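3.2 Worked example (two chains)
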Amino acid sequence: MDKFEQILKQYWGFSKFRSIQRDIIESVYNGTDTLALMPTGGGKSITFQVPALAKEGVCLVITPLIALMKDQVENLKQRGIKATAIHSGLSSHEIDIEFDNCAYGNVKFLYLSPERLSTNLFRERLRKMKVNLVAIDESHCISQWGYDFRPSYLRISELRQILPSDVPFLALTATATPEVVNDIQEKLGFSDGKVFRMSFARENLVYLVRNVEDKSKHLLKIVHSIKGTGVVYVRSRDKTKEIALMLRKEGISADFYHAGLSMEIRNAKQTDWQSNKTRVIVATNAFGMGIDKPDVRFVVHMDLPDSPEAYFQEAGRAGRDQKLAYAVLLFNETDSLKINQRLETSFPPIEDIKRTYQALGSYLNITIGAGKGETYDFNLMDFCSVYHFNSVKAFNSLKILEREGYIELTDELDNPSRLIFTVEKNELYKYQVAHADLDRFIKVILRNFTGVFSQYVRVEEAYLSRLAGIPTGAVIENLKTLSRHKIINFIPKKRTPLIIMTEERLDEKNLRINPNSYKMLHDRFISRTEALLNYAKTQTKCRSQLLSEYFGEMDAFRCGKCDICTQRNELDMSKYEFDLILEGLKTEILKQPCSDEELIDSLKKNPDRVIKVITYLLDNGKISRNESGQLVWNKKQ
C-alpha cells in the first residue's frame, strides 16, 4: 500500500479508492488547484481528508451548512482525527480557544462557515496556522449562476493574499452546470487548475415519474412493492406528519422529520431510521445533509423541488451502496399551478424587500450605520407576527437581501450547552475544599469529560443528572453557580437561527436592490422550474439522460431502466437496435419529410422493426404527419 491507501485503510477501513477519488487526491497533494464534480454519495469528503492527513498542517474546510459541519467534525473525531468547527453559533471565547488549538495544537481539520473568512480575528489567526489545503464544499454557492449563490463565498479567493502561494484550493460540488463550472474556477482564482468529473449517471438508480391524481395511494403501492428503507420528501412540515400517520395506519413503520423539531427529537428519529427501527422517514428538505445511510432503497418526491439540482441531490440519497434503488417523482397537473404560485412568493416586489429590511433593523434594535459583523438571534415567526408579514414572502425577502450581500441568514441551530474551566487546577482544588457541597459535582465533570481546561466541551444536563444522581434542575443551578463564581464559563443550550449583518444598517434611500440581479434571479428560477417540469412531463427521453444533459454531460447513454426506457423495452428489441433505427430515421426525416415506405427502403433494416420504432415515435410525439401524410420531426424533441 502507498501512503494514501494506508490512510484510507487506517481511518475508513477501505482498501481501494472509488472512481476519481485518487486522481483528485493526487492532484491536490501535488499542489494543483482542483475542481471535483461528484454526485451525492460519490465520496467527496475523502478527496480532501486523505491528502490533508498525508501532509503536515491543518486543512481549512469551508461549508455553508452548519449542521453538516458539525456532523463531519463528529465523524472525524470518532475516527480518532482531531477536527473542530467555527461558526456564528459560538461565543467569541469559544472561537478564540479553537483558533489557538488550530495554530498551536494538532487539529487537522478546521471547518468554517463562509462569513467567518472576512473577520479580522480569523485573518490574524490564519497567519499563525500551517495550512496544507483549502477545501470548498458546495462550491456552486460562489457562482451567481448557481442555484444557491452566497455572496460570502466571493471572499474565499482573498485567502490567497494571506496563505503561501503553494497551498492548493479544492472546490467540490455535486450539482454544477457548465457555466457554473467555469465561474467557480474564475471566482476562486484557479491557475492551471484541473477539473475532474464523475458521471452524473447512477447505473444502479432507476428514475421513475408517475403521473397520478391520488399520490398517497400510489405512495402506498411503492412502499409495499419495494423492500427496504426509504425517504419521502414533501414541501411542508404539516404534510410530513400527515403522510407518516397515513403510512402507520397501513401498518408501515414510518416517522416524520422537519427543522421545527428539537435537536434531541430529530436525532432520535434519525437514529431510529438509520438503525432500521423506522422503515420510512417522511421529511422536508431539512433531512439528508450529512446522513450517509448506504442502503436506502427508494426516495419518493410527493412535490416538485425548486430545481433539477435539488432533485438530483435528494434523489441521489438512494442506493449509495451501489445496489438497485429507485427515485420516484409523483406528479400531476396541479404541480404546474403550484410552481406559478411559488414564483409569486419567491420574488416579492422590491419595495416589499426594502420594507422587510427596515423592519429587520428595528426588530433587532440596530441603529442606522451600526451592526456590521454582528450576529443576532432571530425568530422568523415572531418577526412576522410583530410586523404582520406573510412568513414565506418575508423569508424569501431575507434570502434576496442575503444574495445582495446585506445579511447572512443561517439555518436553525441547535447549540448544546458547553463549558470550560477558567481556573488552574490548584485554584480549583482550593475552591472544592471551600465548597464541599459542589465538590462531588465538580469531580463528576472532571471524571467524565476530557479537555475541560483547554477547550469548551459539550454537556447534556440530563446526562450529568444521571451521573451525579441529582435532578436536572439542580445540575443547571450548579453550573450557573460555578459560572457566577468564575470557576467555569458555562454557555446554556439554545436553539435559534441567526442573522449576521454583513454590512452596517442602511437607511431607506441607501439600500439598493439591483434590478438586473433581481431579474436574473427571477429568470433563473423560471428556467430551473421549467427544466424540472420538462423532466416530469417528458414521455420521449430517458430520465437519467435528461438529468445528465442538464449538468452538461451531453454524451450520456440511455439508462434502459427508467419508465421511458422501459416503454421502449416493450418493443421487443435491444436498446442498441432501437437506437440504431432511431438515428437512421432522424437523419432521413431531418433531410426532408418522408413517407413510411421511403424510410423503410432507405434504412435497409427489418421493415417490422422500423414500423415499430415509427409507431413509438408517433405515439410519444417525437414525429408527426404533415398535410400530405409524410413524417416530419417535431421541433423541441
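3.2.1 Second chain
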Amino acid sequence: MNRREMLLRALQAGVILTLPKPLQFFANDKGNAILTELVGNPLRFPPVFTNGGTMTLAESNVQVWPLPAATTQVIAVNGSFPAPSVVIQKGQTFTANFVNNVNEPTTVHWHGLSVPEIMDGHPKDAVPLGGSKTYTFPVINRAGTYFYHSHGDMITAKQVYKGFAGFFIVTDPSENFNLPSGNYDVPLCIQDRRTANSPQFTYSPGTSEMMYGYLGDTVLVNGTPDAYFEVGRTLYRFRLLNGSNARVYRIEFSDSRSFHIIATDGGLKDVPVSATQFNLAPGERVDILVDFSSNTIGQSVTLKSIAFSHSGTLPYKQGIALDILRFDVTSNNASGGVVPAAFNPITYYNINEVVNTRTFTLSVSGSTHPMHKINGLTFDINRIDWEVPLNSLEEWKIINQTADFHPMHAHGLQWQVYSRNGNTNLPPADKGWKDTINLNPAETVRVLVRFTDYKGIYLFHCHNLEHEDDGMMLNFEVIDPIGIQQIGSEVPEKFRLHQNYPNPFNPATKVKFDIPAGINDTSTIKVYDINGKEVRTLYSGILRPGKYEFNFDGSNLSSGTYICRLVSGKLSKSIKMILTK
C-alpha cells in the first residue's frame, strides 16, 4: 500500500460526530482500575473526493454540535461539512465539475497550488446560481498540505465561515522518508466559531469585525467542537491548517512538550526543526511530528492556542487562550514512523540576483468607513495593478502600518521569506516554501518571488477574510519576460533614455537607458499612444545603478507614433517611437 492509499484509508475511517465520550476505565501502573470521565466529541473526518467527480455547493443542515442540539445550516460541498478532502498524487490531473446551488455567484480557489489563470478561482470567473464549471489542471506542486475555499467577490468571508473549505493534499511516492502514514498521518483544519450562536454559524459582521476580523470563542477541528482524538504511544504526523477567517493561533501543547516542524505551506522543509510553539495565521499550514511514546495509557495532552496580547474587542478578541484538540493515549499501537535527519534540500533564492523590488504598504483609512488598503488602493476587479515578468526574481517588501495582523497571500506560486524587520534568522514556520506570510503590527517582511509556471491575472491579498472583502486585495498579471538586461558593470553619470533603434520599426525595436548612482526610487517604463493613453507598462520597480536595454515588441499595436517614458522618482525622460506596418 502506498502513502496516498494509506492516507485515503485514514480519512475514510473518520467517524461522524456522536454523543460525548462516556466514562472509561484505565489501569494504573499497579494494575488498579481508575474510573475517568473524559468529555468531548470524537474528531470527525470529511469524506474523500473522487477525482473526476462533481462538487455540488449547496446549503445543507448537518449535525455539528452533539445531540440533542439542533442541526446547523452550512454551505456544504456534496452535503458534507467539512467539505470533502482531495487526496491526489503529484503529476496527476485533477478534475472536478463544480455546480453552484447557492444564491450567490462564487468560485473555487485552490490555495497554494500553481494552476492556470482560468482555473485559479479569481472572482472575475464567478459561477452563478445554477451554473457549473469544470476545474481541471495538472498537479505540479510538491507534496504538501494545501486547501480549497470560496473566493466570491466580497463574500469569501461569509462562505468560508459557513463551511465552504476543504483539504487538498498532494502526495509524492518519491518523497519516502519513513514518516508516519495511514492512520498516523492526520489532517487538522482549525476554525473558530461563537458559542453564543450555536448551533448556527451566524455571520453578521459589524464595524469592529470588519476592522479586526470575525473572531469566535471556541475552536472546531475538522468541524468538531470540543474535539478529542485517541492516539497510540507512538509518533504521529499532524497537518495543521488554519481555516479560520481571522484568528491567529499560537500553537503549543498543554505540557509544553517539544515536537518537530517538518513542513510549511509548500511541503517538506529541508530539515525537521524541534520547537515548542509557533504561530499559525489564517491560510497558513504547518506539519508537525509529535511523539506520544513517553505517555502512559490513560493520559491526555491538549493542543492549545496560548494567550498573547493584541488589540480588539472582548469577548471576541485576538489572543485569547483556546483549547484546540485533546489527545487521549489509549493504546500501544506503533506507527513505524521516524523523525528523519533531513529531507530533500531546498534551493534558496539569492537576494543578490533580485532584478526588481516592489513595495506594498498595508494601511487602514477612510472617514465614515475605514477600509483596508494596499498602497492606498482597494480592490477593483477590472483593474490590473502591476505586471510581473515570468521567471523574474523579485523582492516584495511588505510594510504593515496598522495595529493588526495581516496574513498576506499570493496566488500562482510558492515564495520564500527573506527577512522580518531586517532579521534573516527566521522562525522555523517561516523557512521553506510559503504562499502566506503573517505580518505582525508595524512589521516589515521581505519575500522573494519568482513566477515560473503560468501567465495571467492573479491576486495578492490579506487572508484575514474580512480584510480581503473590505478591499485589501489587488490584481497583478504575470506576463512574458520583457528582457530588461543590465549591460556591463559601468555606473553611468547621467539619467538618460536613448533613442530606440531601429526607428521607425516593425514590429520590434531595442531601447537603452541609464540609471545613475543615487536614485533609489521606483523606476517605471511605460508606452503611450499619441493621445496620451497608456498602452503598455513595461516595468515598475527599483533598479540598481547601471546601463540597461530591452526589446520592445509592437506586434499587437497598430501603426503610429508612440511615446516611451522612463520615470525614476522625480526624474523622467521620453522618446518618440514610430511603428510602421
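3.3 Remarks
Confidence is low (pLDDT under 50) at residues 14-20.
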